[in-house]
Amino acid sequence: DQQVKQNSPSLSVQEGRISILNCDYTNSMFDYFLWYKKYPAEGPTFLISISSIKDKNEDGRFTVFLNKSAKHLSLHIVPSQPGDSAVYFCAASEEYGGSQGNLIFGKGTKLSVKP
Amino acid sequence: DAGVTQSPTHLIKTRGQQVTLRCSPKSGHDTVSWYQQALGQGPQFIFQYYEEEERQRGNFPDRFSGHQFPNYSSELNVNALLLGDSALYLCASSLAGQDLPEAFFGQGTRLTVV
Fold first, then answer.
1. Which end of chain A, N or C, is less packed with Cβ atoms under 10 Å?
2. Are B10 and B108 in contact (CB under 8 A)?
3. Smallest CA–CA separation between B80 and chain A, in Å?
4. Tens digit of each residue's pLDDT (9 = 90 or more) over B43-89
């Protein structure tokens, strides 16, 4: 039973256009959401996060939107660049002992940005 | 500032053997978590160590055990290796007590069981 789902295994976008990566979750206790980017032969790199008390967080070209009622979040990359080509993982956690608990990951979406 | 470092980077073991993987957290971090990433899947949480004790555990058998040392570094031990244990093992470190802690990952150890 997957608690975090990324239903699109892959996404192809033209350079300069917007990339939208989607993520759905089932556990209403999740209160913190993160996006990681992963290149081959490297560990995941933290990209951006959002707390459940917010509905939007922006960092440069990256914006994460959270819709709690729909249990859905999305990552927008504008404009997309060829260097953004990687696998993107959505992750979620709930509070544990006053801190954030373990991360539950989706299966990832492979983004390809074409020049 | 060194990030999270893991050793070794690659490892080949035979079924039934035991393996130990090592992780040094990012400087200033006190919490270490271990994840298993099978091919085509997202990382799956194994367990988390804080103050030298296992704080949380995922759905992994007792063959998977760990340890955290006073300098916050950590080891993951897997006994009686199975072919299905072949995966990328990721270590992540964070700082406890933060409102929005980001976990920083190492490059991983690629374990192949033959």
1. N
2. no
3. 26
4. 999 999 999 999 999 999 999 999 999 999 999 999 999 999 999 99
